[in-house]
Amino acid sequence: xxxxxxxxxxxxxxxxxxxxxxxxxxxxxxxxxxxDALARFQGDAGARVLIVRCAGKTFMAGADIKEFGKPMxxxxxxxxxxxxxxxxxxxxxxxxxxxxxxxxxxxxxxHYRIADAAARFGxxxxxxxxxxxxxxxxxxxxxxxxxxxxxxxxxxxxxGAAAAKDAGLVDAIADGDLAQAARDFARALVSEGKGPRxxxxxxxxxxxxxxxxxxxxxxxxxxxxQTAPLMALDAIRIGYEGLPFDEALDRxxxxxxxxxxxxxxxxxxxxxxxxxxxxxxxxxPADLTPRDVRTAGVIGLGVMGRxxxxxxxxxxxxxxxxxxxxxxxxxxxxxxxxxxxxSVAKGSLAQGEMDARMARITGSTDPADLAAADLxxxxxxxxxxxxxxxFATLGQVTKPGTILASNTSFxxxxxxxxxxxxxxxxxxxxxFNPAHVMRLLENVRAAETAPDVVATIMAFxxxxxxxxxxxxxxxxxxxxxxxxxxxxxxFFLVEEGASPAAIDKxxxxxxxxxxxxxxxxxxxxxxxxxARKSRAAKAxxxxxxxxxxxxxxxAGRLGQKTGSGWYAYDETRKASPNPETDALVAAHAERHGLxxxxxxxxxxxxxxxYAMVNEGAKLLDEGIAPRPHEIDVAMVNGLxxxxxxxxxMHWADQIGxxxxxxxxxxxxxxxxxxxxxxxxxxxxxxxEGRGFYA
Length: 694
Known about the structure:
By secondary structure, the chain is an alpha/beta fold. It folds into 4 domains: 5-260, 2-enoyl-CoA Hydratase, Chain A, domain 1, CATH 3.90.226; 296-471, Rossmann fold; 479-598, N-(1-d-carboxylethyl)-l-norvaline Dehydrogenase, domain 2, CATH 1.10.1040; 602-687, N-(1-d-carboxylethyl)-l-norvaline Dehydrogenase, domain 2 (Orthogonal Bundle). It is built from 30 helices and 19 strands. An 8-stranded mixed sheet has the order 12-11-10-13-14-15-16-17, with helices on both faces. It has a 6-stranded mixed sheet with strand order 1-2-3-4-6-9, sandwiched between helices. Strands 5-7-8 form a 3-stranded mixed sheet. Strand 18 (567-569) and strand 19 (575-577) form a beta hairpin. Helix 27 (648-655) packs across helix 28. The model has no long low-confidence stretch (mean pLDDT 96).
């Protein structure tokens, strides 16, 4: 028997205990061990009932992703779980922790289920471009009904033990120790003479074509562009084709197997792995001890500062929040309370939890009160002089060893480090707006940042529920630097004749949640104009000439908040083409002697996206991003680059860097060296027939 599964019998109750840390994944050793335990149970007349449970912090939390893309070794999970259906004695799954994917399918293949009260259940396969392939789409509807099964299988979300019991997916919830409760449950089955209760012996719930149609439309909106959710819906329908249960399982597995090799699954698995890889900073010793952060401080309580305070307090971190004056402090405190009160009113936050979060926040108007903080995050206005003054103050009032981090989105961290007088303690921690919601955190290592500071901010980011990615110092770091190239090309395309709607449609069709011009209207064109002004000294004459944003702001058109920007908006903020924009573009072209032309979708897409790929390659060239992983993770989580393409660098690899380079060279000939000089890394890799990842 495989060493990952132990088997023992006591008083007629057999137990197969899986022990494969950290999450008891369904690796080959586990599958082989379960097969052996099942055979021993079947052949043991003295064993009346079998309990399957896991050691450690969780029940089986899914497949072993390390085995994806490799030849699978028998027994494979779908075939193994069919054997559970053939056993003529009852099998009980005793589950705790996260019962996900293949682990959930294992539990459903058992005849009965008892759960720890804190257990969570779900099928996350669609998030990896897959569908449950070991019976999940066939067993779940038979136990839980169609609506619940569709939600679980196609949405990738989770439900708790109580909801699972209400749905019929769990038979009992343990009161106290799960292992003992499972043994008591098993004894009761034996004493009551209950045999197996197999999913395959149960009928599918009554067919509901209208429910399937509604689900298909909903998935088309919520998970636009993704194939896996719709394929998962199709897999559930296999149960209505009148096939024997084993054949339905085979059909489901065939669909899943085909998807494993598909481009979306490869891309989503790449992002899944990359999000874990970016936590390991190259060159940073694994045994480096982070600094202890017990109390954090935030100075600057505008929109970003408030969001950062909320993110910290929500994660259980005491926060000293320093405002410019009492009025700013009061306004911030009121705004934070209002946002959390709204969550309480909606039922998504308990009043007691809100009270605890508010109690973690200590307000002040005196930077000297930050002396108690172990980490201070600066979030004052994006003005270099103002920030230098703040860092000079922080260098004086905080205790030695306190980490001083700036939330700047593009200013030079090295300049702020010099102002502090203690450069080794200084770094960047760039949160994305809204800071208490957005998952990405760009941590920035400056020239003199101490290694243990880097280790601390990476660990702290994870502690507060963020996805930290490390960047070096440059204008805009990773996300905003790459985004600036897309914005540049969007403005140039408008100047050459592409309509805002055509540009945004191409980006939407690719899979982004919003086009660049609609995004500008949403954020506020005054904000974009201010950002352009701050960077004007580094802008080219052509970039300065494409001053559409400045023209609209001068006319009082700030985007959605004024009802007019690139688009016109009604009272519900529904967008429509804006005749004023058409007139503005025409007048701009006439004023500068420009000839407007028809521009196709392919050129729009390639100019917007290849500009970012090329800039990503330059980030790697310059050592700003240590690996392509950081770029892909940052762009997916910070800008909404569609995860099912794998991010810009993975996507470019799939196209072929030679093809990407050829297109960039064509744009270079048409648009000039200032905008389309290819990265030396891109040229070298394309010449070698390699990709960013290979």
